[in-house]
Amino acid sequence: MSLGDYLIPLAPEFIMLIGACAALIVGLTQTDDRRQFVSPFALLVVLAALVATVWLGSPTAETVSPPGLWLTSLTYFARLITLVIGALIVLVNWHQPVAEERGEYMAMLLLSLLGITLTASANDLIVLFFAIELVSVPTYVIIALSRTDSRASEAAVKYFFLGAMAAAILAYGMSFLYGAAGTTTLFSLTGGAVASLWQNGADLGPQAIIGLLLVFGGLAFKVAAVPFHVYAPDVYEGAASPVTGLLGFVPKFAGFLALIKVLSALNWELPTEVFWVLWLMAAATMTLGNALALLQTSAKRILAYSSIAHTGYMLVALLVGPVAGSGPMHDGVAALLFYMAVYGAMNLGAFALLSAFRSGDRDTETLDDLAGLARRAPMAALALAVCVFSLMGFPPTAGFLGKLYIFSSAFSLDAAHPYHGAMVALAIIGVLNSAVGAAYYLRIVAAAYVREEVQEAKPTGGMPLRWGLALCAIPMLVFFAWPSRLAGEARDATASVHQSIRADQGKVTAAEHGQADLASRDVIGSDTP
Amino acid sequence: MLLASIEPYIAIGATVLVVAIIVVIMLIIAHVVGPKRRGPVKDSAYESGMPIVMDTERRFNVRFYVVAVLFLLFDVEIIFMWPWVLSFYHAATTGQTVELASGELAGKGFLLFGMGMFFVLLVFGLLYEWKKGAFKWD
Amino acid sequence: MLSIGLTHYLVVAAVLLCTGLFTIMTKRNAIGILIGVELLLNAANVNLVAFDRFREGGLFDGQIMALFIIVLAAAEAAIAVGICINVYKNLATVDVDSARQLQG
Question: How far is A228 from chain C (nearest CA, A)?
Fold first, then answer.
């Protein structure tokens, strides 16, 4: 087998790596007019990687996976979503840091995106851990570079030290998983991988359970789940708004991809204690995030707490897992992936609007700063309204479909499922929380549309930022009308989770049973008029 | 049962205890018996050595930290090369393949390519630092 | 006779972990906290190498991961020093308690 067989399937990753190095070089030039090429160059790199992804298509059974990686349809989905939202992030951050540091900034952004795609394809605890760190470490630098004032460096300090601690806890937990399994390979067709350790379902032994709880603790930090959420509001407020939009998506997507990897290595058969820890975490994350968001007056902090609440909704879908139900999405993991894609765009859009205006001599942050926006800039206010309604989960937006998929996947669980009652209860908590969340989201929209202008605000940023804002808002309406393509991609990505569960087992899992039932039900459904 | 499980550690515990007791006794004896002479000369840092030039809490130029960090980064990379050299020597001298963690087999070409990539990135980092002016002292 | 087994190494690692967590919680100096984080990473390393030594068959996955974690620790130290210099420029101290503008 030649080297090319190994390298060509990784073309998008290589494009991003080489692009990141080249962005550093472009940023080194001494003249300002040449430095302006950094942002277009970064956009070009992301789009080139996107073209390479589409050209390669979804990996098939014949695709050669390099050692330590397993290229699946999940990789394909992660690459598509990461690169599309990555392009939006580059647009929103177009003029972000001072020109001297833009080369480093864009290089770090590209490396962070590279980390997400590697997380999605990791097939080894070592690769998984370092892919997540490749996502996190550049974000520390991005926050520190984002503003020149002391608030950004304070946010960077908080995020760095807590993040480094979470990474260490994650490594410590992984060492126990390695100790219990004797190998770091996650899935292997020949057996002898972490996944084969857990063939006998929930009987894991104390070492593996300690390891799992520590791993979930470390990853909970990345996705900002309670009780590891404490850093989120401060860090989100301290970083510049375009960076905050990035922070809501990049570490969260990587964290959830890693959780999907770890849980599929467990065949999604959680030990009882681990299930209840995650259940409590999901319930507390939704409730606390929404309750604290109600108390805030700064639009930026409201969105920061809402991002915590959204983590809670996603955890619900994660707990449902790939067990197929009769809901519109059939599947918790597919609902999670769909929601993640939608969330990345709507969250980025809301923060992009905050960075599009300056109130007096400071950045737009409070609700007062947003007052009177509709009269001043009707199009921008409309984009904000679309993004915020989507975050709220209000009908003509994709956010509504995302929430519908998540909660219906929990409600449609088979009654024989061991945690059927608990999951339905969790989904009810989620629905109630969404209703509570509407209160603070409506305050943002009301500030923009109803209230009189408090302080004069000047538009800032440039055309790229405005394009980024528009491209975040428009898909919310488009995907509400035509969700089938994105939902189909998400469902295809889940096929690889089913496949990885089956890989070691040689036995038909509950997931497969559900899938088979569903297939027959679909056929029946299409026969009747 | 409990006693049996800690039995091997009793000797270690006894040793620690004996050492602690001896230290305390010696400190007490020194305190009670030893002569006490105090004065400005006696309390100085180097009683019969050189005079003190300045405070120890002196601020270092921040460039020392930058240089230390750059050194640390390139210094630590060497630990990747040591296991690689062993694997490559094995592959090159015996012509055998090396089993990777994923269960696949790698020949020396693959190993050479991997280390080549690593080196290219390292040299790129060095060149970047150079052009960025990290090695300039003033 | 006392023979050193896997458990002894795990206990050492757990002690290292607790020391690290204690350091992180009590130190107010940013460099002190960084030392605590390094202790946590080394607890993971001790665990990995111990599990590797006492495993049955298989490859040296644990030792390889320990090597990678050592390099990660160096990279994190580099970023920590960079961020600390950044903070020092803005606040003229590396005492983390003085970083409390963002609360609410």
Answer: 15
**Partner residue facing B101 (CB), from C61, C70, C77:** C61
What are chain C's domains? 6-96 (1.10.287.3510)
Tell me the pairing of strands A357-359 and B98-99. unpaired
In this predicted structure, what is the pLDDT of residue A270?
79
| A283's tokens | 């319930």
- Contact across the interface for A182 and C57, Cβ inside 8 Å: yes
Would residue A494 count as lying in a domain? yes
Taking only Cα atoms into account, the Rg of chain C, rounded to an integer number of angstroms, comes to 18
Give residues with Cβ within 8 angstroms of A69, minimum separation 6. A10, A118, A121, A122, A123, A124, A127
Minimum Cα–Cα distance from A297: chain C residue = C104
Residue at A519 is within a domain: no
Q: Shortest CB distance from B101 goes to which of A25, A68, A190?
A: A68
Residues of chain B in contact with residue C67, where contact means CB-CB under 8 angstroms, are 79-80, 83
CB spacing of B101 vs A3 below 8 angstroms: no
For tokens 């005492």, the residue is C95
Domain that holds residue A62: 3-512
pLDDT of residue A196: 65
The per-residue pLDDT for range A323-352, each reduced to its tens digit, is 765 556 668 889 999 999 999 999 999 999
Q: What is the pTM of this model?
A: 0.88
Average per-residue pLDDT in chain C?
A: 85
Least Cα distance to A316 among A275, A273, A267 occurs for A275
Nearest to A161 among C37, C59, C86 (CB): C37
First to last CA, chain A: 52
Cα separation, A260 vs A128, in Å, equals 11
Q: Which residues of B touch C1 (CB under 8 A)?
A: 8
**Pick from A134, A362, A339: nearest CA to A241:** A362
Least CB–CB distance from A133: residue in C17, C72, C84:
C72
Please report the pLDDT score of residue A336 as a whole number. 92
Structural domain contains residue A147: yes
Number of domains in chain A: 1
Q: Which two tokens stand for residue A39?
A: 């942002």
Average pLDDT over residues A46-72: 86
Q: Residue B36 pLDDT more than 60?
A: yes
pLDDT in tens, A155-186: 888 899 999 999 999 999 999 988 888 888 88
Instruction: Give, in order, the Cα–Cα distances in Å from B31 to each of A475, B10, B22, B28.
Output: 81, 31, 14, 5
Strand partners of residue A366: A298
Looking at residue A526, its pLDDT comes to 28
Q: Which amino acid is at B115?
A: M
Reported ipTM: 0.92
Question: How distant is the Cα of A421 from the closest Cα of chain C, in angstroms?
Answer: 37
Count other C-beta atoms under 10 Å from residue B94's C-beta: 8
Convert C28-96 into a string of H (helix), E (strand) and C (coil): CEHHHHHHHHHHHHHHHHHHHHHHHHCCCCCCCHHHHHHHHHHHHHHHHHHHHHHHHHHHHHHHCCCEH
DSSP β-bridge partners for residue C29: C95
* Structural domain contains residue A527: no
Q: What are phi and psi of C95, to 5 degrees?
A: -75, 115
Q: Is A60 within 8 Å of A74 (Cβ atoms)?
A: no
pLDDT of residue A515: 35
Q: What chains are in contact with C, requiring at least 3 Cβ pairs below 8 Å?
A: A, B
Percent of chain A with pLDDT over 70: 89
Measured distance CA(A13)–CA(A26) in Å, rounded: 20
* Structural contact between residues A299 and A244, judged by C-beta atoms closer than 8 angstroms: no
Which of A103, A108, B77, A68 has the alpha carbon at shortest distance from C67? B77
Please name the residues in contact with A224: beta carbons below 8 A apart, sequence gap of 6 or more.
Answer: A231, A232, A251, A252, A307, A308, A311
